[in-house]
Write a structure and sequence with these properties.
- The complex is a heterodimer of chains A (262) and B (224).
- Chain A is mainly α and 262 residues long.
- Chain A has 2 domains: 1-62, no CATH class; 65-249, no CATH class.
- In chain A, 76% of the residues lie in helices and 0% in strands.
- Chain A contains 11 helices and no strands.
- Chain A is globular, with a radius of gyration of 22 Å.
- Helix content of chain B is 27%, strand content 27%.
- Chain B has helices at residues 46-53, 76-82, 97-102, 118-127, 144-156, 174-189; strands at residues 5-15, 21-31, 35-39, 61-66, 69-70, 83-86, 162-166, 194-198, 211-216, 219-223.
- Chain B is globular, with a radius of gyration of 17 Å.
- Classes of the chains: A mainly alpha (262), B alpha/beta (224).
- Chain A binds chain B through residues 160-161, 163-171, 174, 254-256, 260, and chain B through 17, 54-58, 76-78, 80-81, 84-87, 89, 91, 93, 103-104, 107-110, 151, 154-155, 158.
Chain lengths: 262, 224
């Protein structure tokens, strides 16, 4: 089943801007005031993806382990930075715990997928490692942001319940256990839900890409299955490590909640 | 009350995390078995004073002693079990009255303590005029006054020697307030507990003579 993917020329790409024009007109007609964001978003989409395309081509051509690891680490750093920006309450310095949890869990999951499941040699082969790892980061990054937001939010709003337990001799871990559970659930539920809906409600992006590129749909679905299970694994591991490390920082050695109410 | 200091503040300074100073050079002691009423304008630091006493807050400078042992030398959960802090607004968890009462015994640090049986729990409820409440009633369905007493019983099951009451009557009507105040008096007089109670209400107990701690402008005075 050989098939050459249709190339998109510069003019055709420019024609794509018609879709942006439609959004812009809608925004203008109903005073949604989204024109500026739309413009910035469009420019960033073009610029970021072109840069990514050139970097990926460069990395693929270079095919060097240190470069692959470097690019992957940078992607994780950027994801951690995005989470840092999304979570509003910054009383607790949570950047490093988030970054370290992500580095550990994403490298582990991506390594297992390329080395064991897909069985690529070498395991860091950029054509496999970077896109698969990138999907891990992109998807479970949201999970980490959601669980972190929930953890910090509930630790603040349920302060009196936590202190009630502390006053009765609980350790900070015991006093915050139900909140930790809620935070983990909130982070993990979306990836479990998407395992329920995949193939019924939506055709995932990666499968679409593979089919467009000429793959047999049955090869594409196998990759997709690997991706789905890998995402639920990385989500669970990433959120667990993050909430454990960040919770630790919300209490001090005297079992006091150092996170202050607003 | 005897003249043995159960709690002693030595040169304590406390500053809020935002840098706003509250107490400085605080030196005083509370005697075992005493009944202390804490007074002072709102915002003067009455709650913080109580929170320092059971280590929900740490002094920036100075040391607090429990039975002449510095707080820093006592494991925090053990200290808090000895010096019980009852919050202003009662906090109960999901579940029954019994679930709430035995909650403290599920914590690691309390595992060595004997878990009270149903008869003991019922007796405690009766002592606090809650005999009409069955143990399987959902705790959240109790009135605020009943929840306040439930919280107090829950803490007393850990056999504390000092009880800190942070405006326990602020959310209660007159009748419930009387019950709580009467209980505080009984705990001091009959069960020899040291009581520290923040209250805005006029309270004239018959069996104990309260010592007033007046908190204002970053300091406090003990008025015998």
């Amino acid at each position: 089943m050989e098939h050459q993917i249709a190339e998109i020329g510069p003019l055709q790409l420019a024609f794509g801007l018609v879709f942006i024009l439609i959004s812009g007109l809608a925004s203008f007609a109903y005073s949604l005031k989204l024109e500026k964001d739309l413009l910035i978003g469009t420019v960033r989409t073009f610029v970021q993806l072109f840069i990514m395309g050139y970097i990926l081509r460069f990395v693929f051509d270079l095919s060097h382990m240190a470069v692959v690891i470097g690019v992957f680490s940078f992607m994780i750093f950027f994801a951690a930075w995005t989470i840092y920006g999304r979570v509003k309450d910054k009383q607790i310095p949570f950047f490093m715990p988030v970054f370290l949890s992500m580095i550990f869990s994403y490298f582990l999951v991506s390594y297992l997928v390329t080395a064991v499941v897909v069985n690529v040699k070498p395991w860091w082969e950029p054509r496999y490692f970077i896109p698969l790892g990138g999907m891990v980061i992109g998807n479970s990054m949201n999970a980490i942001a959601i669980s972190l937001e929930r953890l910090i939010g509930e630790l603040k709003s349920r302060r009196s319940e936590i202190e009630m337990k502390l006053c009765l001799g609980a350790t900070s871990r015991e006093a915050s256990q139900p909140i930790l559970r809620n935070a983990m659930q909130a982070g993990m539920i979306p990836s479990i839900n998407s395992m329920m809906a995949v193939g019924m409600v939506f055709i995932p992006g990666m499968m679409t890409g593979q089919i467009l590129a000429g793959s047999d749909p049955l090869t594409a679905i196998k990759y997709q299955i690997v991706v789905m299970v890998m995402l639920s694994g990385s989500t669970a591991l990433g959120t667990l490590l993050t909430v454990l490390l960040v919770r630790k920082r919300c209490f001090n050695a005297c079992d006091q909640l150092v996170l202050r109410p607003d | 009350m005897n003249n043995v200091a159960i709690l002693r503040f030595e040169n304590v300074r406390f500053t809020y995390p935002d840098g706003h100073p509250l107490f400085d050079k605080l030196c005083f002691e509370l005697n075992q078995g005493g009944f202390y009423g804490v007074r002072g304008p709102s915002g003067s630091g009455k709650s913080t004073l109580l929170r320092l006493m059971n280590r929900l807050e740490n002094p920036c400078v100075g040391e607090i002693f429990f039975n002449e042992k510095p707080f820093s030398a006592i494991p925090t959960p053990e200290l808090r079990r000895q010096i019980l802090y009852i919050q202003q607004t009662p906090v109960v968890t999901d579940g029954s009255v019994k679930d709430n009462l035995v909650l403290p015994f599920s914590f690691k640090n309390n595992r060595t303590l004997p878990v009270p049986d149903d008869d003991q729990l019922k007796k405690m409820l009766k002592d606090f005029s809650l005999e009409q409440i069955p143990l399987d009633r959902a705790a959240r369905n109790l009135s605020v006054g009943q929840q306040q007493r439930l919280c107090l019983i829950r803490g007393l099951l850990l056999a504390p020697s000092v009880i800190l009451l942070d405006e326990p009557t602020s959310a209660l009507d007159h009748e419930s307030s009387r019950i709580v105040e009467g209980m505080a008096e009984t705990l001091c007089h009959d069960m020899k507990k040291t009581i520290v109670m923040v209250s805005h209400r006029e309270f004239n107990p018959k069996h104990v003579k309260p010592v007033i701690i007046d908190v204002r402008e970053g300091g406090l005075s003990v008025l015998p």
